[in-house]
Structures are given as C-alpha cells and as structure tokens.
Amino acid sequence: MTMIFTADGVFELNADETLLEGLERTGHEIEYQCRSGYCGACRVKIWVGSVDYPEPPLAFTAADEILPCCCRVRESIKIDCHKAITIDRIQNDLFAPDLLQDLD
C-alpha cells in the first residue's frame, strides 16, 4: 500500500495508475501536457520519500522535484500539491460549523 501525502490530504495510490493519475483522481490541481516526462509541466516538489523512473525523463528536475507523469512511487511520499479549488470546496470552507465558534 503506497500512501501519498499532499498539502491537502492523503490518498492511496492504486497499483495500476501513475502518480499523475492518482492526483487527478483525488481532485488535486496539477498541470500536465505530455504525460511522458518530456515537457516537465507536471513537476512538483517532493518533501519526504523517493521515486524512481523506468526511463530517465528528458525534462530537467532539481534534486527536490519529481515528475508525477512518469515516476514510479516505491514508498509513501509527501509532495507539494494542493487540491483544486471548486465551488463546493469554497462553500464547505465558508460555511464550516466552527467558522463562527469563537465569536461568542
């Protein structure tokens, strides 16, 4: 079981999906174009853990960056990625029951 920790939560990566697909499935906002490691648009920072690549990607990555489109996650990781902002998410945050709790 590979757990992915992000800035907004945690999810389990399915065995048959890339990290990019898992981030999309769970509503995270992530850019992409090629899905093959050529362009680097999906580049994110990795805070904890490590990944490897079946083939070295052509896009440049710094030591603290990974390409979710083509990396293989071998252990639980923590990355700098946020969930997409949706109207439901805004409404849930805006009308959270504890929002006005300290006003009494």
Keywords:
Ubiquitin-like (UB roll), 5-stranded mixed sheet, 14% helix, 104 residues, alpha+beta, two-stranded antiparallel ribbon
How would you characterize this protein structure?
A hairpin with a 2-residue loop joins strand 1 (2-6) and strand 2 (9-13). The model has no long low-confidence stretch (mean pLDDT 87). The N and C termini lie far apart (45 Å). This protein is of the alpha+beta class and 104 residues long. The chain contains 2 helices and 7 strands; from the N terminus they run E-E-H-E-E-E-E-E-H. The protein has one domain: Roll (Ubiquitin-like (UB roll)), CATH 3.10.20. The chain is globular. The protein is 14% helix and 23% strand. The protein has a 5-stranded mixed beta sheet with strand order 2-1-7-3-5, with no helix packed on it.
Give the overall form.
globular
Q: What is the name of the CATH architecture?
A: Roll
% residues in beta strands: 15-25%
Contiguous runs where pLDDT drops below 50 for at least 5 residues: none
Structural class: alpha+beta
Reading the helices and strands in chain order gives EEHEEEEEH
CATH superfamily: Beta-grasp domain
Helix residue percentage:
10-25%
Give a brief description.
This protein is α+β, with helices and mostly antiparallel strands and 104 residues long. The chain has helices at residues 19-25, 87-94; strands at 2-6, 9-13, 44-48, 51-52, 65-66, 72-73, 77-79.
